[in-house]
Structures are given as C-alpha cells and as structure tokens.
Amino acid sequence: MIAALINHLWQSTLFCGGAWLITLMLRTNSAALRHWVWLLASAKFLVPFSLLFSIGSFIGLPAARSADIQPLLLGDALQSASVLVSPGALRVTEVGPGSTILVTLFAIWLGGALVVGLRWLLAWHAANSIVRAARPAPGAPPDARITDADIEPAVARIFHPVVLLPAALLGRLSDPELNAVLAHEHEHIARRDNLKASIHRLVETLFWFHPAVWWIGRQMLEERERACDETVLENGHDRGDYAAGILAVCRHCRAGASVAAAATSGDVTRRVRYILGTARPAAVGALKTVSLLAVTIAIATAPLFAGAAQDAARRYALLTSNSRTLGSADIFVAPAVSGRTPEIVAAQNVVEIRNSTLRDLIALSYGVNRWEVLGGPWLDSPRYDIRAVAQAPVSETEDFDPEALSGLVARLLAARFDLSIHVNDRCQEPCGSRALAVERAR
Questions:
Q1: For residues 307 and 50, what is the distance between their CA atoms, to the nearest angstrom?
Q2: How far apart are CA 202 and CA 193, in angstroms?
Q3: Which residues contact 390 (CB under 8 A, 6 or more apart)?
Q4: Which tens digits make up the pLDDT trace of 38-58?
Q5: Would you call 47 helix, strand, or coil by DSSP?
Q6: Tell me: the pLDDT tens digits for 105-163?
Q7: Radius of gyration over alpha carbons of the chain, in Å?
Q8: How far apart are CA 119 and CA 113, in angstroms?
Q9: Rounded distance, CA 154 to CA 383, Å?
Q10: CA separation (Å) from 153 to 168, 178, 268, 408?
C-alpha cells in the first residue's frame, strides 16, 4: 500500500510539473484556460493512474490465440461453460515494527487531515451563518444579499450561490464601482468557482502534507481572480472605476468569514496593475488547441491502454502456458455425477469439466456457441465428467481460460468418441480413428 501511495504521489507531482509547463506556454492566453489546467492538476491527486490502469485491465483487450491451441473453425468463444471462482484463504499477519510505523504514519496523516478539514468546515459554517442572516439588496439582482458582517464582497455557497455585500461598504462605492465589483462576483457564480475551490479543498484535506498541493491552490486562486477580471473588462466596465472599487474594498473591509470567492482575493497589486494596463489575453490559436487536445487525450487514454495491453499479455501468457501443460495431460472420462452444475474447475494440476454433454465439448473445442452445434439428441445425453491431470500446475479457476482446453478436448473427441471434423472434404486434425490410433500408440 505504501508503495502504491508513493507511486501515486510522484506521478501526481510529475503531472503538476507538466501542468506548470503548459501554463507557461499559455501565459499570454486566457487565465480561465490556465485555471482549468491547474484544476486538472489538482484533480489528478484524486485519480491515481493505477485506478485508470485497473479500469483498462478490467475492460481488457482481446487476447491473441495461443499457437498451441487448435484453430477455431466458427468464431466466437465458448459461452456455455461457467467459471467457478473459489475464494482465497484468509490470512492473519502479526503486528511487527513495520506495522507500527504504518499506524504512526496513518495517525499523523489523520491528525493533519482532521485539522484541515475542520478549518474548512468552520469556514463553511461561518459563511452559511452570514448568508442566513443576510437580507435582499434593494434594486440588486435576486442573488445579491446585504449583510452587517464585516466582510468583503464575496460569493457564498456551492449550490444556489449568493453574492454577499457588506452594508458598511455600499455608501463608499459609486454606482460604476459597485457595478464592476458585482460583475466580478457574478462571474465567480457563472464559472462555478466555489465548486472548483471545494474540489481543491478536498485535495488539500487528503494531501495536506504535499507542498505541491498548496502551490496548486495559490495558482488556482490567482488565475481564478484574473479570469474574472478579464471577463469584467471584456464586458465593458471602466478600468478606472473597477480598480477604484477594488481599492475601496481594501481600505474599508477586512476578511472576516472565509468564503471561496472574495473581491480582494489573490495578489491585489498585480490585479490592479493588470486592470489599469492595456494587456489583453491572446487567442489560443490552432496549434496550441491541437497540442492541448493531444496531450489531454494521451494522458487520459495511456494508462487505460497500458492496463488493457498488460492484462491481454498476461492472459495470453497464461493461456499459452496452460495449453502446453494440458497438451500431455492424462484424461479420465466418467458418467456425470447427478445434480452437479455444468462448470470448469481448475486447481493445482487438475482441471475438471463437470456435467458436460458432447454438444458442450464440441462448442468448447471449436470455439462456437452451444446452440451453433447442430445434431440429434445423442449430443445432449449422456453427460460426462472429464478430469485432466497434468504433469505441472495450471492456473487457478479465477485465472483459467477455458480456451486452454480446446486442443485437449478436440483430441478427446477424436480419440474417445471417433469424432471427425471435415472442411472441404478434408478431415481436420485430430481426426477420428486416426487420432484413436495415435492415442493408442502413446
């Protein structure tokens, strides 16, 4: 578990470094775009590559057919046999020095997470209390509330957010200044910044010990405020009035309740310089757009594909190994035990095909569906229990692919039941009585 956590941390740190390089490439472009990049870097801490790798393994890729297995004549894999999964044995481990260290580390992490989480909870409770005590603002949008609390203009709540305006500040702002400040806060609502900030707070709570997490938080804060400033200016608000409104907030208010999106968040000096300057965000352009899309798709799909490819390779290796092992196995055929469920069970060096008919065996051997095997009632009665004893162990039931039995069952059908398969008037190996002669010679 510690190894998996370390892998996740260095991968997330590397991802954070990549996000930083991307934001450098986008430094002349929209702050909103850079904010999304930092949000993805934050969310990466919640989504380990190993999870994507496991999902890819679960989805899987078609495994190549082993060269040791008889060729399929009609296509699809066996679907009539069900695999019985046997539970593993429970093991009890003794508590040693390593376990003591793990318990100590967990206690330290839990203490830090509780402290950060408690601060988050208290801030949310304080902001929610202010919202409940606030009153509608006359002449303002319905989502604006006036509060007597000594706070700065801010947005509270994740769902159904409202803009909080301190009553002490209203008389100190001109209408253009107030409108610009309100536009800034409404842009936070439109961008769902409180929700994005809460996602990162969850990351901070879980990974409070990682310096990169707090650095990402500062970058997100700066880019979030710059993005709102850019939109306010694009909507035609006067630069001077907007800067004056922010400075008035700085002079007359202090941050009392901690809410996610406030008027003076971020580096105020840098913000005012940007607002009063003439810089404009440049268009992203086709090259950067294609590059970002390519990087995003590669990051999202590479772990999935790697997991699927590794699982396919693992299954192919097991299939090949089991096929070779069963190639020289001793086969025992007996009437089926009444009441048994048709299934394939593998354990150590023994594989059993229980309560099977000739129709099932033909479908298994030649990779077709049971209903695709046509013939009279002799295909469904009697039923057999088949036991293959190999010289070496095979995979356990949960990892055993019934396709590994194809060659063995094909030889069994030919040698014991004199079954021959003809394609274009040519008998396919193993072929009926010829296979029986070979079997007797063995």
A1: 9
A2: 14
A3: 325, 326, 328, 329, 349, 350, 351
A4: 999 999 999 887 776 677 666
A5: coil
A6: 899 999 999 999 999 999 889 989 999 999 987 777 788 899 988 888 899 999 889 99
A7: 34
A8: 10
A9: 76
A10: 11, 10, 14, 77
